[in-house]
Amino acid sequence: MKKKTGICSKIYIALMMFFLYVPIAVLIFFSFNEGKTTVWKGFSLKWYEELFKDDNIMNALGNTLIIAILASLFATILGTAAAIGINNFKGKKRLVIQNVSNIPIISPDIVLGVSLMLLFTAVGVMFNFEMGFITVLLSHICFCVPFVVLNVMPRIKRMDQSVYDAALDLGCNQWQAFTKVVIHELMPGIFSGLLMSFTYSLDDFIITYFTRGTKFQNLSIEIYSMTHRRISPKINALSALLFLAVLIIMIAINLHDRHDEKQSLQKT
Amino acid sequence: MKSRKPSIPYIIWMVIFTMIPIVMIGFTAFTDSQGNFSLEAFSKAFFYTDVFIHSLWIALLSTAICLLLAYPLAYLITRMKKSSQNTVIMLLMIPMWMNFLLRIYAWVTLLQDNGPIDLALSLLGIHGTYIGNSAAVVLGMVYEYLPFMVLPIYTVMSKIDYSLIEAAQDLGSNNLAVFGKVVAPLSVPGIISGVTMVFVPSASTFLVAQYLGGTDDIMIGDVIDKIFWTDQNTGSAISLILMVFIFVFLIIMNLFGDEEAIA
Fold this sequence. Notes:
Strand content of chain B: under 5%
Number of helices of chain A: 11
CATH superfamily of chain A: MetI-like
Mean pLDDT of chain A: 88
Low-confidence stretches of chain A: none
Order of helices and strands of chain B: HHHHHHHHHHHHH
Number of strands of chain A: 0
Oligomer: heterodimer
Number of strands of chain B: 0
Shape of chain A: globular
Structural class of chain B: mainly alpha
CATH architecture of chain A: Orthogonal Bundle
């Protein structure tokens, strides 16, 4: 078990990466194609031009980002508070609460989607409103909160309770003890909960599809309506840009982590 | 920090957005369109038994292939230098951040008639259709969910205490024995969460089959999608059956995990 990788294992890892990236590379390649099909007709940026002229897509992109930001922020607040409270339940009650909390992430997306649709339709009939932005936002919060709870909970368990007591002894009120001390201890869990929520919200198609009503469009829905049983080169251009954005974000996070690691190494 | 109060908003939230919708699914499944008690929806749901079995089969196959591909990959990653490990994990996660539909669409582009694969193989004199069959659906599923299998297995494997491995070596185990007797048994929890994370979405997703499969490849998720807009009762009945099935599957997986942990 020496930390050494043989040539065979390098080839295997490379093959897996090839499998993961070839489809994306092909999309990016054809985004520069002059022609509409997958036959190369010459280099062109016209699909990018058309993409930026497409108000529907730009609008959908905006909606996706707004929903992801609002849903993940709201879910983080609700979920962090919930985790702190749930931690003080004991035995059966706690087990029940935790299991119910996990239902949205263990049940299939499609079931969550149709069940929320039933709820919103029924409430909609009673109070005369239509599904749209608000119902999509509520649904996204539904599947985000459990991730926050799951990420924050272990941090609370590991936290030294005396830190909180010390803050109280030193004259903090409960709220100050929370904002000045506790929250810092929980931060890594809160942050990964936030990040997971944001990611899942960005990627979601199924739940949005069932709770969006008739008018609300986000990126997934827009991609769905553009690609369903036909090929659209604008989508290739969109894929290329999204890939670039993801790549930049990931590299930034990675560099940031390395920077932190170095700093913590220097400290010790 | 000793108070239960902060969880009250979330408990109310769960009642409204988790409990009530599930009760509504159950209620809708056991009534007819007039709201009277009826088992009609379930008898209609039984028309789709074949689709249900087909979906489970596709999901099982996809999960098995994912495990077969992911397990060696996860193991090999843990044997790399720490900095290379982080890079490979990042590379695994980047495709997950691309939209779910774009990842399937990429395979539509690759596999379609006169697409890159078709053209390349025609040059070699091989002609065929690569899209519109069950194999393409499984391929799409594997591509979609492979990282969900690699990541939990990798996480568990990378946490294995290195001194255990050294102890095994000191006691005379060769690399194969170290793997078989130490690494493999300790990685079982990772396998279980990987299998769960791949099987549940691949059994219940929709659209993958619509994009990549033929007309016979329709899956249970596609059926729910098609039916729900016109017949909520039958749609709810199928959803309820699917949910019960998934929960039974999860309970079995959990039992299996616990036994392994004790043994």
